[in-house]
Amino acid sequence: MITGTIFDIQRYSIHDGPGIRTTVFLKGCPLSCWWCHNPESQRYGPQLVLWKERCIGCGDCVKACPEGAVSLQGGPPEIMKDKCRCCGVCSKACPAAALEIIGKTVTTEYVIQEIEKDLIFYDQSGGGVTFSGGEPLMQPEFLKSLLVGCRAKDIHTAVDTSGYANWEVLSMISGFTDLFLYDIKHMDDAVHTKTVGVSNRVILENLRKLASIHNNINIRVPLVPGINDDEINIQQTAQFVSSIKISKVNILPYHRTGMDKYGRLGREYRVAHIREPSKGLVESVAKVFEGYGLSVKIGG
């Protein structure tokens, strides 16, 4: 029985591929994008999240923790990460739902059963299921089993990926994937390494290879002002995409909806100073891609 780690199943999604979709979020990601709106996806295992605004100061979490990893001293609980095993006992004891475990291990069968609950929406809208993350390629055998299971039930599949993985992984799942949603974050390797945490060389080379064997790839470009919206990068991105015979591009304007998650995880949000791109900027970037003969959609 194949198992994997997920952190959410989002129903009635309309931004992760065609039609109405169910998006399954797999946990774990080798990237650390400054603007990531799912920071809870980056670590593979379960994580304890604290909603400080919900805490009523009752101390039940302190009493419940078997490791003595929770303390309460006149404010929200403090979690000692070196002691916490993310067992979830404290979250179950909290009457205000101020503590939450993000991430759980599930079987392929469980996920497929959850996906099948939305079959009527797929049939009516031309939708299906999207496997996202994190980076779904980090759990290759689990991902493959999910794709094979959906193929057996004639459910349209999409994989939302950064492409940062061994080529053998992409090659293995390509025959079971109906649509790839493939991110390009920056063409300059130095900037990519600084703001994303890894080189873009594997990502771009994998995309070249994938485009040669798969005919349904949508490029997704997160548009982050001050990081990848300059004219040189946009021109280079459009030129590269058009050169490998891919025709569809989704521009994803940066948004700040994930900012509060960083506080709950006890992490710093590194782009708090960045504002969402203006309509004019988004439209001008779209025109550059269209100038290379690419079909452009704003949003997922």
Fold and architecture overview:
With 300 residues, the protein is an alpha/beta fold. It folds into two domains: 3-44 and 104-298, Aldolase class I (TIM Barrel, Alpha-Beta Barrel), CATH 3.20.20; 47-101, Alpha-Beta Plaits. It is 33% helix and 22% strand. The chain is built from eleven helices and 13 strands. The chain has helices at 60-64, 89-93, 108-116, 119-125, 140-152, 167-174, 189-196, 201-213, 231-243, 259-264, 279-290; strands at 3-13, 21-26, 47-50, 70-71, 78-79, 99-102, 104-107, 128-132, 157-161, 179-183, 217-223, 248-253, 295-298. The strands form three sheets. The protein has a nine-stranded mixed sheet with strand order 7-1-2-8-9-10-11-12-13. A two-stranded antiparallel ribbon has the order 3-6. Strand 11, helix 9 (231-243) and strand 12 (248-253) form a beta-alpha-beta unit. Helix 3 (108-116) crosses helix 5 (140-152) and helix 6 (167-174) packs parallel to helix 8 (201-213). The radius of gyration is 20 Å and the shape is globular.
